[in-house]
């Protein structure tokens, strides 16, 4: 056995690297001085005396009363057996102390959880993400809802899947998964369909999972990332955001294809699998609708119930919307009007009809004639086109597009014309200004 292997085995018994080297030197040399041990072990002479003292206390080395002192290893089998028993005893004490400490820290954690409010934190690396997922599953009271691309599904460790399924079964949880299915993914998931409801949606590139209405985690890196250790996600427990993400998941779920339906129509109609796809990131969404002004025949409808919606439209879509309007396409925009976006709305009236609607938790949609639509979750209501955590469903299913169009028409019918809302806001702002001057 090599010197390195012997040192590693001695370290398993509780010796340090230097103690292991010094002990092997004594065993090899027989009765020897500190100088000889230092030379054989290639350790500094100044530390040999301290090391010998520790080895003597462990019963591995004996020392003489000579000057200079001499050291030797007593009965090797008995000495190592005693060391092994000491190490085993110490490990038992560590295990007991660990269990007690874990219980006490759990009590502190529960107390801390009760005190702390909603949180937002970023989790890096795949191992930490998997740990967070298992903790969330363990905390679930009634339901787990998940979304993942094919690469993410195929790379989930077996032990993570097993623990998740055991928890689902034990707690009788409802578990739903929207996945990007293909033959490999379907084969991988098929055996779990008795515990997890599975539906297909194309082009799912970033993972998402939530429990009940209490917490949600959303991936920040695409599935095309080759280094899974570089994966990261954002974990959110703010109630309004969790509910908005849950509502958005439900919209995806309604549009997704049930596993059995997907499997049965796999060979019959492959085209239906591409009628609904997922778009991750606001920039990608704008790129997906960049040619709408050229494709439009009759109408482009836009529902944007967030304050910065009009600013984004004015900044990034003004030219294309104006071009469509000049071709005779009817442009209609429902937005939430406030003093902050009043100037943007006035400018929008040059190329689109505008009406005011109440604010929503950040779910908007756009419709092109009766052929295409996008349903968007606006994670951060900013005026910037860059927001990687925005998520959208791109739909080309005609029945789904018609349903969205009917919804838009209903909202439009019950909304306030922009001109009326502008007068109201202007009067309010003028009154407020007069009051402040007074």
- The structure class reads alpha+beta
β-sheet strand percentage: 15-25%
Q: How are the strands of the largest sheet arranged?
A: 3-9-8-7-4-5-6-10
User: What is the count of helical runs?
Assistant: 18
CATH architecture of the largest domain: 2-Layer Sandwich
Kindly describe this structure:
- The chain has 438 residues and is of the alpha+beta class.
- The chain has 3 domains: 1-116, Arc Repressor Mutant, subunit A, CATH 1.10.10.10; 120-264, Endonuclease Chain A (Endonuclease, Chain A, 2-Layer Sandwich), CATH 3.30.870; 281-428, Endonuclease Chain A (Endonuclease, Chain A).
- The protein is 50% helix and 18% strand.
- The protein has helices at 3-12, 17-29, 34-41, 45-57, 76-115, 126-139, 150-154, 158-171, 183-189, 239-255, 259-264, 282-288, 292-295, 309-316, 318-326, 342-348, 398-413, 418-437, and strands spanning 62-63, 71-72, 120-124, 143-148, 174-179, 197-200, 208-211, 215-219, 232-236, 257-258, 276-280, 299-304, 330-335, 353-356, 363-368, 372-377, 391-395, 416-417.
- The strands form 3 sheets. It has an 8-stranded mixed β-sheet, with helices on both faces. An 8-stranded mixed β-sheet has the order 11-17-16-15-12-13-14-18, sandwiched between helices.
- Mean pLDDT is 85; it is low at 268-274.
């Amino acid at each position: 056995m090599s010197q390195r292997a012997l040192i590693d085995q001695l370290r398993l018994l509780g010796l340090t690297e230097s103690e292991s080297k010094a002990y092997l030197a004594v065993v090899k040399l027989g009765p020897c001085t500190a100088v000889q041990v230092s030379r054989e072990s290639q350790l500094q002479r100044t530390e040999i005396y301290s090391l010998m003292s520790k080895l003597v206390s462990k019963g591995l080395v004996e020392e003489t009363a000579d000057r200079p002192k001499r050291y030797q290893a007593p009965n090797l089998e008995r000495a190592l057996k005693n060391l092994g028993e000491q190490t085993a005893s110490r490990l038992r004490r560590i295990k007991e102390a660990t269990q007690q400490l874990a219980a006490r820290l759990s009590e502190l954690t529960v107390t801390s959880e009760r005190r702390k409010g909603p949180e937002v934190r970023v989790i890096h690396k795949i191992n930490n993400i998997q740990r967070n997922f298992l903790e969330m599953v363990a905390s679930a009271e009634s339901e787990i809802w998940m979304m993942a691309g094919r690469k993410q599904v195929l790379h989930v460790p077996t032990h993570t899947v097993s623990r998740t399924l055991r928890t689902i079964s034990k707690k009788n949880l409802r578990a739903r998964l929207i996945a990007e299915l293909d033959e490999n993914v379907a084969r991988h998931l098929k055996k779990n369909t008795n515990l997890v409801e599975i539906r297909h949606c194309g082009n799912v590139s970033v993972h998402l999972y939530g429990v009940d209405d209490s917490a949600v985690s959303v991936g920040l890196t695409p599935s095309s990332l080759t280094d899974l250790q570089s994966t990261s996600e954002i974990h959110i427990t703010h109630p309004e955001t969790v509910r908005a993400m849950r509502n958005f998941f439900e919209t995806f779920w309604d549009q997704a294809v049930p596993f059995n339906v997907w499997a049965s129509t796999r060979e019959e109609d492959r085209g239906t699998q591409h009628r609904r796809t997922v778009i991750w990131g606001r920039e990608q969404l704008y790129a997906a609708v960049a040619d709408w002004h050229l494709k439009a025949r009759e109408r482009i409808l836009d529902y944007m119930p967030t304050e910065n919606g009009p600013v984004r439209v004015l900044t990034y879509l003004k030219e294309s919307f104006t071009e469509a309007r000049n071709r005779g396409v009817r442009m209609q925009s429902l937005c939430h009007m406030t003093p902050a976006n009043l100037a943007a709305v006035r400018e929008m009236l040059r190329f689109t009809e505008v009406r005011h609607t109440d604010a929503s938790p950040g779910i908007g949609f756009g419709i092109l004639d009766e052929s295409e639509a996008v349903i968007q979750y606006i994670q951060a209501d900013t005026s910037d086109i860059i927001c990687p955590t925005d998520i959208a469903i791109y739909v080309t299913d005609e029945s789904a597009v018609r349903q969205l169009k009917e919804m838009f028409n209903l909202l439009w019918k019950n909304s306030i014309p922009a001109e009326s809302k502008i007068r109201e806001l202007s009067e309010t702002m003028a009154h407020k200004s007069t009051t402040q001057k007074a």
